[in-house]
Amino acid sequence: MILESIRAFNHAAPFRPYAIRTASGETHRVPHPDFVFISPRGSYVIVIDARERPHHLSTLLIEEAVLLNGRARRKAGKKTA
Q1: 6 found inside a domain
Q2: Are 42 and 57 in contact (CB under 8 A)?
Q3: Is the pLDDT confidence value at 22 over 70?
Q4: What CA–CA distance (Å, rounded) separates 79 from 38?
Q5: Torsion 30-54-27-5 (CA) sign
Q6: pLDDT digits (tens, 9 = 90+) for 24-70
Q7: Is residue 32 part of a domain?
Q8: In a domain, 51, yes or no
Q9: Does residue 54 fall inside a structural domain?
Q10: Exposed, middle or buried, 20 (CB in 10 Å: 0-12/13-18/19+)?
């Protein structure tokens, strides 16, 4: 089911950024479809982060894929005028 969600998010027009959360609690942001690859048999998902480091995720350990709201998080302690 989750793989189908990831595939649907990647093929959506217009594309909306999403995140993949694993059983360990890690969250991997997917800002563009080019940042994610699903293995041919669907056993692994590879997500490339902002530093271009690959993260190999077993699909057995992926808990959810959720759309992001599109806003960057504000750093704590900074106030806007």
Answers
A1: yes
A2: no
A3: yes
A4: 40
A5: positive
A6: 999 999 999 999 999 999 999 999 999 999 999 999 999 999 999 85
A7: yes
A8: yes
A9: yes
A10: buried
- Is the overall model pTM greater than 0.90, yes or no? no
65, burial (CB in 10 Å: exposed 0-12, middle 13-18, buried 19+): buried
Q: Which residue has the tokens 């806007």?
A: 80
Q: What is the CB neighbour count within 10 angstroms for residue 26?
A: 12
Range of the domain at 55: 2-67
From the number of C-beta atoms within 10 Å of its C-beta (0-12, 13-18, 19+), residue 37 rates as middle
Query: How many separate domains does the chain show?
Result: 1
Concatenate the DSSP letters of all residues of 45-62 into one string.
EEEE-TT--EEEEEGGGE
Tell me, what CATH number does 49's domain have?
2.30.30.100
